[in-house]
Structure formats: structure tokens, C-alpha cells
Amino acid sequence: MTTHKVEPLRGKKPISFKRLMAVKQIANDTFESLTAAWPPAPFQRAFGGHVYAQAMYAASKTVGKGLVVHQMTGYFILPGAIDVPFVYRVRRVRDGGIYCLRSVDVFQQSNAAGQGSSPCFTATISFKRSEKGNAKWHDFDHQDVSRQHIRTEYAMVLDGVGPEDHPLAPGADSQWWEDQEAEKWNRTAAAFPGVEMRKVDMHRYNGRVEPGGGKDGKGASRWRGLHFYRLIQDDDSGDEVDLNLHAAAHLYASDKNSLFLVQRALGYEMVPTTMASLSHTVVFHGLAEHLSMVGKDGRPKWFVQEAWSSQSGDNRVCHNSRLWDYESGRLIATTIQDGMMRFPSELVKKITGGSKEMGGQQGSKL
Q1: What does the pLDDT read at residue 42?
Q2: Most buried among 100, 108, 243, 358, using CB within 10 Å?
Q3: At what angle do helices 243-254 and 48-60 cross, to 10 degrees?
Q4: What is the pLDDT of residues 190-249, one digit of tens each?
């Protein structure tokens, strides 16, 4: 296990996704990260989307040409440090003509990751070869939601506003954090790397939710969040599109601020809470070429994540989302995330009693 430090993130200009995801092979089917993960506010721990996306990208280095990820489930086990590399150990579970399966265990040699004795993250990843044009099979394609769904359902918050006109997504999408930590964080934090993410103000659409989602909890279920995102490329980018790298960017974006949505949906946005991702599943739909994050002109395209929560209880919450190609209205992926969320009862009582006197800390995802 190596112990050298990775390249840290600095400055207000975000680095490209290709540079962020770069790995080097250090042994058979074993890879090491070269760039530090972005640390969500306010703690210096790795953003979970980094290890999630990079685990898939490392696994893609072990599959044959033409095989592109179509499904991934990952489990977050230990928090990740940002000052030492992630080491990705890939196991070749099966190689088939059209489908192949990989598992990945991720380690760090650091105090935050248990001295490397246990993986901090593990995943199973399935790759598929395109069957487009195969004369043996009849092609079919459908989605159960109109391709105009995003534009029509959310017209009140989207009409007349381009994706680039929405504000950048915050470091942590929580009201208590914005009130207590955002100013300091924005002065010191490096720019969110790899993917440009912009948050849509959904207050007009969502309205007000009572703490706990109201008496029947339906207030929490109707809450929706929208994030636009697009790839950050190198200035001299002219490389052939690596669809697995672009798929990794979708995976990366899908995990940004995900659990914070549930906190807002429950009406506890002012309660400092402890939260962590437990598992995250993404299923990509349709042709692999739909995952490309650049248009025919080579410029980054806009995608949008539509998110909500289907259920919560026993200090666990479920985050659901769909990823859309904004221009075409094509649904490209469905995600489901299981998370741990704990609200200190004494702070919840102050919220329900109308008091704003609160303090505390929010935990960190991997």
C-alpha cells in the first residue's frame, strides 16, 4: 500500500473531470488515484461521489473494448481521507460476450480509513456491449414519462432561465450550514471539481413543509429537487469520447448533496444533523452512446437530476432520482440511495417549538 500524498485541489478554477478521475496501475487489476477528492463542508473528508465514480472508472480499465457500464451498486463503509490515495482492487467476476461483471474493494492507508485493514468502499459493477444493429434481436425503446416532463412539470421555476443562469450548487445544501458555515467555506474551499453543478431554486414549486413532513408525511414525499450539471473539460480537450469516463461523471453528479434533499423535505433544514450514505445504486438506460456528455460539436451538454424521497424511518432515508438529457428529454438513468440520518431530539423540539437557538455539527459522508 502506498503512502504518498495525492495532488491536492486548490483555487477557484475547477479542474477537469478527466484529471480528477485519473488513476495509475500499480499491480494486476489494482489502481491508485492521483488527485485528491473534494471535501464536502465543513470537514476534510472525501466526497462519496468521488470514490463511487472512480471505482467504476478503475474497473472499466479491466474490461474489453466496447463494454460500457450499465449498472452499479456501491456500499460506503468508512469515511475517506483526502490526503492519501485511494487504492482500487478489481476482481473479475465474469467475462461474457455481451455482459461482464466486476467487483471493486477500495482501501486507504490512513487513520480515517482504518489503516487500510478494511475497505472503505466496495461495489459491484456490470458492463454491457451494445447490441445495436444485431439482426437477431428486434430493437425497442420506451420511457414511462414524457420527454417534455422536466420542462412542463417545472415550468414555473425553469421558464426563461437557462441552466447556466441558476446558482452553483452549495458545498452542503442545508439551511443551517448556509447560515453558519457558507461564508467561511466559500473563502477557503477549492472549487467543486470535474462537473459544473447548478441548483434550481424550488421554493415556488415545493411550498412549505411542516417539520416531519406533516401529519401524514405526504409533504416530504412531494418535495422535489433539480440540479443541472455538465462536464468540465480540459482547455485542449480533443480526445475521443471515453463513454465509461462520461458515465463516471453522471455517477459523480448523482451523489452531490443527495441526502440533504431529504433533510429539507422533512422540514428539518435548520437542524444540524449526522448523515452518511450507506449504499447507492445507479441503473443506466438505453444505448451507451446516450451517456456522452458532449454534443456533436464537442461542447459539454446539460443534464438534469430530478430528485425526491420515497420513504424515511428508523434513522434511515431513501433518496430517489432520475437523470435526464435536458435537450432531448431522454431519461438516461435511475438512482436509489439508502442513507443514515439522525436528528438530535432536543434540537428538533426547538424547531417544532419555534426556537432558533441551535448549534451542533453535521457528520460527513465518505
Answers
A1: 59
A2: 108
A3: 160
A4: 889 999 999 999 999 998 878 877 666 677 889 999 999 999 998 766 778 999 999 999
Centre a 10 Å sphere on the Cβ of residue 212 and count the other Cβ atoms it contains: 18
Assign 3-class secondary structure to 314-343. CCEEEEEEEEEECCCCEEEEEEEEEEEEEC
Q: Tell whether 139 is covered by a domain.
A: no
Q: How far apart are CA 71 and CA 125, in angstroms?
A: 6
Please state, in angstroms and as integers, the Cα–Cα distance from residue 220 to each residue in 174, 189, 206, 256, 333, following that order: 15, 31, 10, 19, 23
In a domain, 321, yes or no: yes
Structurally, how many domains does the chain consist of? 1
What is the CATH classification number for the domain harbouring 103? 2.40.160.210
- Residue 336: which of 318, 313, 352 has the closest Cα? 318
pLDDT in tens, 235-248: 766 778 999 999 99
Q: Is the pLDDT of residue 186 over 80?
A: no
CB 45 within 8 A of CB 176: no
Domain that includes residue 60, residue range: 17-131+147-352
Q: Is residue 268 part of a domain?
A: yes
